[in-house]
Amino acid sequence: MSVTxxxxxxxxxxxxxxxxxxxxKYHPNEAILEAYNAGQRVFGxxxxxxxxxxxEALSKDIEWHFIGHLQTNKIKYMASFVSLIHGVDSLKxxxxxxxxxxKAGRRVKCLLQIHIAQEETKFGFTPNECKEMLDxxxxxxxxxxxxxxxxxxxxxxxxxxxxxxxxSSLSSLFDELKSAFFTHDExxxxxxxxxxDDYPEAIEAGSTLVxxxxxxxxxxxx
Length: 222
Ligand SMILES: *Cc1c(COP(=O)(O)O)cnc(C)c1O
Description:
- By secondary structure, the protein is α/β, with parallel strands linked by helices.
- The protein has one domain: Alanine racemase (TIM Barrel, Alpha-Beta Barrel).
- It contains 9 helices and 8 strands.
- The chain has helices at residues 3-13, 29-37, 48-57, 75-78, 91-103, 127-136, 160-181, 199-204, 214-217, and strands at 19-23, 42-45, 63-66, 84-88, 108-114, 145-152, 190-192, 209-212.
- The protein has an 8-stranded parallel β-sheet.
- It starts with a helix and ends in a 5-residue tail after the last helix.
- Residues 23, 25, 46, 67, 153, 195-197, 211-215 line the site of pyridoxal-5'-phosphate (PLP).
């Protein structure tokens, strides 16, 4: 099926309040353009250089979300244009984003990545590490970042039960952190969870941002 058709089907399926991040990593500009022409404006990339090249080549009304694993030395290349960084998993990264955002004269939106999967390969704070970081309070002094919520990836498994349990644990953590640290902060409202194989379960558990790649663009060739 075509990218256009895939986007239309997905958009029709998403309830109100859930936004689609079209994950275009490893796909060429032509594929992004096709999604763009179908009305899609939010795209997710996982490599900084690739995102910068696409940003430079394509329409400036695209919202670029960085969904990959972050390296401190790469933040400077995207600080001037990135719309949302999904995978922040340390205070050190938050400080570096703050520094680069200040240089670019911006406030950059970030999500804290939480490790919810039973897989070592996935990144993120444990729930306790995240609470400790927020409790410690140094993040409040970082004026050029804005914490907008949480991001997580479920285990890659056929067990729908396990995936549901992991998403629901992330959703509970969101509620807990919201009431402990962000009650009066309307910006803390995003829960980024769900990919091609598990976005329906993520939506059931309260996702506000689904990150869907292969279901739109087909398999990636690495
Ligand atoms: C690649 C990627 C996705 C999209 O995965 P699909 O299975 O192709 O939908 C979503 N989130 C993250 C963090 C990714 O790296």
